[in-house]
Amino acid sequence: MGQARKDRRLAWRPRSLQARQLLAASLGLLAFLAAAGYALDRAFVDVASELQRDRLRSYATSYARDIEFDRAGNLIPPYTQPDERFERPGSGLYALVVLPNGTWSSESTSGPQLPDAELLEGGVEKFEGPLPMTRADGAYGEVLRYGKGFIWDLEQRPEAEFPYTIYIMEDAGLLPQQVRVFRGALWGYLGIAGLVLLLLQALVLRWSLLPLRRVVAELNRVQRGQADRMSELHPRELEPLTESVNALIESERQNLEHQRNTMGDLAHSLKTPLAVLRTRLDGDASEAELRAEVADQVQRMNELVSYQLSRGASGGHQLFAAPIEIEPYAEAIVRGLEKIYAAKGVVCEFEIDPAARFHGEPGDLQELLGNLLENGFKWARSRVLLTVESGASAPRRRPGLLLAVDDDGPGIPPERIAHVLQRGVRGDERVQGHGIGLSIVQDIVRSYRGELDVSASPELGGARFLVRLPPGL
User: Fold this and answer.
1) Where is the HAMP domain (predicted)?
2) In terms of pLDDT, which residue wins out, 276 or 176?
């Protein structure tokens, strides 16, 4: 069943981006070429039809200019024809002059049986066809016919005027033959152009997707351990992707290193208590002394384990976390601290920007606020101030965060700040604690690539712990 599902997933695997783009572009190109070919074909047919009409009209005009009539109204044929085909019987181009007392036709009309023609009034034009005809060999055919009516004025006497009509006819098969030749050439050239454009399109598409293939190749090298991170030489459209991948790689590497360091520190810390116990067991200590020593070392190991587990729990966070509103967490923590330090009567004030958000793990926010506020309650005389503001921002990135806790306690001398921030160091040995709260804060801030600054409080006069978190991805 598992193999069958895998086969079905492979069978329904989505097409690659290159295949999608090539298919879409090819369909668009074919549709464009088809529309262009159809438009050119219709334009050629219309133009060819119009040219044929103009050609027949020019033949009629030429005959009207060259023919003459005698005093009796008989037609005198022209000495030269506008086209030599009028002189060849059955050539496909015919001239016919219709008179009141008869007709005259060119030599090309010998043999074919042309359609009947009527006398038109002067100035009237008529283009007809295709009209049926019979060729000299008896085969059926069709012609296109143009006719125009004229008035002949004999010796400038109005009573001697008479009408006549000139008809020019051409085989209707000539235009379809021209259209077939044109269509063959048109679709042949369009087909060649389409193949060339498809090939060029495939090359352009391959070139445009080359950055994506490079990204995939770099990811494969990172997966195989051949590279530590992705390079930064990518188009700006792919920069958010590569930056996110590099941030993810860096976050995972830091988390792994953090876990390894935590386990190494825990093992190293437990070596000394275990060695002491082993020495006491091998010695001649009394049972009471041994019990006391075991209790002391077990208590010490318990503190070490708690410390390392606390540090390990705060060692990582999700890279893309939802924004968290800060004030509800701060209020819950302060309510608990006010109960613990009720005897001191410490008052905690808030100055929280409603738009400020923490982009990370809820547990990390609780650790930050809990340790900083507890430190403030522990050292304050009567007041603690929590200030939260939106920090620096950058285009297409989530804004940073500024979080500060001030107290009105004795403060920390500048020369002791670095010492107090060390793991396991308490500001005053007489004050209860393990000295790891600020260390946890430092680890969390460092995991978010932020900064922790300790200085004198300008408002309350005690210590001020300021956390700066930079804009995120």
Assistant:
1) 206-257
2) 176
